[in-house]
Amino acid sequence: MANSQYQTWMCLICGYIYDEETGSPEEGIPPGTRWADIPPNWTCPECGARKDDFEMVAL
To answer: Tell me: domain 8-57, CATH 3.40.50.2300, correct?
Structure first.
């Protein structure tokens, strides 16, 4: 993979952080899952916001 750096995404509604490196195993998303590979109907596990309500952040 050309760009192996993982990105972090934050829910603009509640502040939940999705980290591509750790994934969200409790939601069925394994570690290393890229944001683009998460299904479009996935919602924030904390508040139910859509993927459109997330923004990439640098932590």
So the answer is: no
